[in-house]
Amino acid sequence: MNNEFEYIIKAVKNIKLSENERAEMRASLLENFAPSKIEEYQNITGFRNTRLYYFLTGGYRYKFAPALMMILVVVLSGGASAFAEKAIPGDFLYKVKILVNEPVAGAFSFSKEKKVEWQGKLVERRLGEAQKLVSRGNFNKTTRVNLENQIKNEIDEFNVNVNKLALEKNEGTNSSDLNIKLQASFKAHQNILEKLSFETDIKENTKQETEKFLTTLEGYKNKVKDDHKNLELDVGVDASVAENSLNSIKLEYEKEKINLSANIQNQINDKLVLAEIALQDGKAFLISSDYAKATDKFQLVISLTNKGKLLIFSNVIKDDIENDMGIEENNNDVEDDQFEDINLGGYDIENDQLENTEEGDTNSSEFDQIN
């Protein structure tokens, strides 16, 4: 720990701030961390449990407290962050990024939902770092193992907290969407990594380590997906939950539709049609007091809408990654997992692709579950 701390201090000392940046740094410190502000922060739910609160109120009474404050000030002022945020494993400022920037950013995630969102973003950051290393042909065993361990720890934290969020009143849909977004992130990053490993002229060692990394990611993705099944069981299903889920994907789809290929749009449209039918059937069963069949139909609505959300999120994320990394456009859509049953809402749906025709006909794999 002492070696890591000395490393951070050395890195921060090598960052040169302009006079304007120093002035902004001092102003930020006085404005945001004056005693009155600290008292104000104490009233924010969850803040008392953060390490930042412990530090600001005198918890860290060690000889290196001034140095810690210096690091905090530099990070908050934007000096270190601008450089360290771009760092990847092996860079001089990488430890500043993961030991200073990220803990400080996480300390300001006061609500449970924001905390879960941040933990999901940490997984995405590690995946993004792996992509950059692979694209540069500099992905070795040590880095791979370290990233895998970090991702595993962050997923464990994510799963614990997203399940806690699901138990909160009216937070079931939010927890479900956060889980789906993380699944989508895995699918998108896997798509890009596969493209890089097959189409980029990289060293054989990097290619082999990338393949091992992809295998590990598949296991992690399945872990997150399996946890989603438990989420839906805990949340429960009724007409309002199903209808809210359907309305939610409609809004998301309209927002992102322009960024989706015709192929993905067709798949989502099919799922929306089936979900609408299932929702109306479920309501009809409720009227006739057949609650078991009604619940089955509402579960199907949620499964279909969640599959649709996964398609939207994964393809939008993939496109964003390609744009950020300057990767040549990948025309391969991120589609549903092949040859497996996936359960995204407590109801198994065989993953047969819907066949679209000019008349709008589809195969019976999903329609059979409607009737």
Provide a descriptive summary of the structure in words:
It is a single chain. The chain is mostly helical. The chain folds into three domains: 1-110, no CATH class; 111-235, A middle domain of Talin 1; 238-371. The protein contains 15 helices and two strands. It has helices spanning 2-13, 19-32, 35-42, 51-56, 65-77, 79-84, 94-107, 112-135, 141-166, 172-199, 204-235, 239-256, 262-287, 291-325, 364-370; strands at residues 341-342, 349-350. The protein has a two-stranded antiparallel ribbon. Helix 2 packs across helix 5 (65-77) and helix 8 (112-135) packs antiparallel against helix 9 (141-166). The longest helix is centred in the C-terminal third of the chain and has 35 residues, at 291-325. The radius of gyration is 24 Å and the shape is globular. The chain starts with a helix and ends with a helix. Residues 28-41, 59-66 and 338-371 have low confidence and may be disordered.
List keywords for this structure.
A middle domain of Talin 1, 371 residues, two-stranded antiparallel ribbon, globular, mainly alpha, 3 domains, single chain, 1% strand, disordered C terminus
